[in-house]
Amino acid sequence: MKKMAIAAITATSILALSACSSGDKEVIAKTDAGDVTKGELYTNMKKTAGASVLTQLVQEKVLAKKYKVTDKEIDKKLKEYKTQLGDQYSALKEQYGEDYLKEQVKYELLTQKAAEDNIKVTDDDVKEYWEGLKGKIHTSHILVADKDTAEEVEKKLKKGEKFEDLAKEYSTDSSANNGGDLGWISKDDTQLDATFSKAAFKLKKGEVSDPVKTQFGYHIIKNTEERGKYDDMKKDLKKDVKEQKLSDTSAVQAAVEKVIKKADIDVKDKDLKDTFNTSSSTSK
């Protein structure tokens, strides 16, 4: 959600740098004290943002050669951001234009594909994660504001409607996007409401609670899963560990740099010559 907002901050720098060259004398602003040329703008923008902008532009070209991002994927991600950001998304679109937002999303998706391709999960990673699940339960919930709504959801569950579908429809917190999934929780988790935790750990695997009132509203809680034998859980846990690694910004950046190091990058601008010294140029 924040990636779109952060990426858009670089828009002015990228547009300015790509629109002019250091030797361009075209006047873009006139004053009584003298004119400002495109060349002057480029030189100053390069000093303040040149390395970061060049890095993104080069990374996008290198990644696009290796990985494919479709218009359908871009549109889907934009739709997600529109839902998540609301008015902020509309403001970004109005300020920078839809084409620019699409470019930013394309870059994001390319980095994701590079991460998925290069971030590996070992058996030791999975075993360590499994060990850490001791005493925990995998929970989901549906959070609503009032008792009447909670009872309405409860009736639908008893009629056989899927917990995940109802969570997406009714739940008022961000877990709704994942069907109410809260991940693995422990009894001593201080970030959990005590009433919620007590109710959750009374449930058997697969069992769903009656509405539980906390300071946040009314919860219907489900014990989705409990720690079982390692061999039985290994496949699913490997996916969980991979997802965790993919959400680690530093791990994703390392994966991108791994791809960039293999590219033949030669920066011609003397002021930006050292931009890739800590990444791609070290592999030459």
From TrEMBL:
Subcellular location: Cell membrane
UniProt catalytic activity: [protein]-peptidylproline (omega=180) = [protein]-peptidylproline (omega=0)
Pfam families with a match to the protein in the record: Rotamase (PF00639), Trigger_C (PF05698)
InterPro entries (UniProt xref): Foldase_PrsA (IPR023059), PPIase_dom_sf (IPR046357), PPIase_PpiC (IPR000297), PPIase_PpiC_CS (IPR023058), PrsA_foldase (IPR050245), Trigger_fac_C (IPR008880), Trigger_fac_C_sf (IPR037041), Trigger_fact/SurA_dom_sf (IPR027304)
Enzyme Commission designation: 5.2.1.8
Chief location of this protein within or outside the cell: membrane
Presence of the UniProt keyword Cell membrane in the record: yes
Annotated ranges, domain PpiC: 134-225
Protein keywords: Cell membrane, Isomerase, Lipoprotein, Membrane, Palmitate, Rotamase, Signal
Highest taxon above the source species: Bacteria
Protein name per the record: Foldase protein PrsA
Originating organism: Bacillus atrophaeus (strain 1942)
